[in-house]
Every structure is written in structure tokens, then in C-alpha cells.
Amino acid sequence: MRQGLSAIIFLLSIVLFGPFVQANEMTQSEVSSWLSNPNTQSSADHLYQLALQDKVPEIQMLLDEMSMPRQEVVRYLFLKKVERTRLVLSPRLAIFIQSHQTRQPHYQYSESGEGYSVTLSAFNTSLVANRLISHWKQDQTTLDFIIEAENNQLLLSSWLQGDDYQVKKKEALFVAEADSLSPQALQFLSNQLVGNSLKWLPTTPIVIKLAQLTKDERLYNLLWKMKGDDHSLKEIQRLAQKADQFSLQQVMNATQNPVIKPIALKQLTSIKPMSESVQTFLIERLNHSGDGLLVAQTLSESEHYDWLISLLESGQVSQSQALLKSIAAIE
């Protein structure tokens, strides 16, 4: 217990009392030589093996025993390998890496070309450390999301709260990670969005992602009742391209939304060959007093123009003469 406490104090001291240093000059060739040196690479690999065993104090002690600039090069190569391999950070290792976020570069070099000359930091561990900690925090957030969802503890109405930036980050996390959830977890989340007592709605990307993963028609019916936006329009296009019976039925249902009705009809009339169910649906809408003209116009602009004319001339559509005149006027 005492050893564990000492280790934590030791690591915290690294974070709190990092020294300020004046950067020393190196040539660009010296920097390249140090980075490709087999001995420094071997030392960095050794530190990585210690990290796999969570022996963080040993890592720091070995680094302290190294002379400069070897110490800085090994430190940098070690952190780069942690980043490259996406090593899962233990709490100890995370604290150690956090200590490098504000670490001052010990070395710098000049780079020049035609019309410019710049001074760059060599072996910049702070840049790598900041990326590592950023990814670590994201990984922690992702893990919390998955655990809560799988344990039926994630309430979307409270989880998707905060300012616009926070909500958008959570929405992006949900869309990116929902595929990894079990069917039971997805059903738990879906059930929160359907029912008579619904008083809150997420944005369309959340509803669409859940609908895609569960194929729950109730979620699609909810989506078509929401305000149409670019996300819902892209989902209509995706469903029409998928073109299985379930997907086509959702596109047909989408025509109930006045905003996205024209897009849904255009997608249906672009299907070739057209399924029997879509044909039946379009004939029904042609006979509808409110939709007849729009459906006729949409079909007239598609590859199914001849089929439309045959329907109108065969008497299968009410007010066929009026529709024919309207189409002729448009042409």
C-alpha cells in the first residue's frame, strides 16, 4: 500500500514540477541521426515493454539515468510508439504522459529554403503527449457510453444534454460507436424513442442510426414525422438504393411527410425495374386528389414515362384526362 502511494506521489511530482529549459541548437542531420540510431530505438522499445507491464516508475527512472540528448530522443520515440500502437493507457501511464503535455523542448533546429527560415522543436514530446491524452479521454468517453448502454443505464434524454458543442460531440460518438452495441442495448435505446408518452426527441442522426441498426419500423415512422433535413433526405436515398422490400416500404411511408415527399417520390420513380409493390403504391397515389399531379409529373420526368401514359390511357387512373393535359402543358 505504501509503495503504491509513493508511486502516485512520484508521478504527481512529475506533473506539478516540470522544469523550464532553454532549447539547445541542433542541425537537421543531427536530429535525423539521433532518431534513426539503433541504440536509442532499442531503448525506446524497452520502455514500451515496461509500459505493457505498467511499470511507469521504472520508465521514469531509466529516463533520468540517461544523458542528454539521448534521454530526449528515447522519450520521444517511446511516446511515438505508444501513439502508433494505440496502446490502452493505464491510470499511471496516463499521468506520466500528462506530465509531458507542457514539457519544454530541450532541443531545436533550423530549417531553411528559398525565401524562408524557421526554427522548429526537435523531439517535441508535448505534441505527441497532447494527442495521446486527447485520444485517451475520447476512449474513456466511448467506453463509458458502451458500458452504460449495455447495462441499460444510458438515458438518451439526459445524456444528450449540454451546450451545442457537447451535444454534437455526443451525437458524433453515438453515430460512430452504436454499431458495436448488442441488439439488446439497441432495443433498450430504441424503446426510449417510441411510445405514447414521448416528450423529447433527439436529432435526426440519432433516430436514423438506431433505425438502420434495428430495422424498427416504428423508428422510421418517427423519423418521417420529424422535420425533414439533409440527414433524412440522405437516408431516403440510401433506402431506395438498398431497394429490398423493407427499405422500399420506408421510402413509401416517407411520402407522408410533405417536406420530403418530392424526394421520396423521385427516388421511387428512379427504381428500375420497379417492384410490384412500388407500382401499386404509385397507382394509388395517382388516384389521390392531393398527390396525383405531383406523382404524374415525377413519373413523366423518369424512365417510366411510357408506363405512366399507358396507365392514364387505359383508364386505371381517375382524372386521367386532366393529368394528361397537365403533363402535356409541362412538356
Counting DSSP H or I runs of 4 or more residues, the number of helices is 19
Number of strands: 3
Shape: elongated
Q: Order of strands across the biggest sheet?
A: 1-2-3
Topology as a string of helices (H) and strands (E): HEHHHHHEEHHHHHHHHHHHHH
Category from helices, strands and their pairing: mainly alpha
Query: What's the helical proportion of residues?
Result: 55-70%
Over the alpha carbons, how many angstroms does the gyration radius reach? 31 Å
Integer average pLDDT: 88
Strand composition percent: 5-15%
Which residues form runs of ≥5 with pLDDT under 50? 12-20
| Main sheet specs | 3 strands, mixed
Q: Terminal Cα separation, in Å?
A: 86 Å
Write up this protein.
The longest helix has 26 residues, at 125-150. The protein is elongated and about 95 Å long. The chain contains 19 helices and 3 strands. Among the domains are: 2-129, no CATH class; 244-331. α5 (70-84) packs parallel to α7 (125-150), α14 (245-254) runs antiparallel to α15 (261-269) and α17 crosses α19. By secondary structure, it is mainly α.
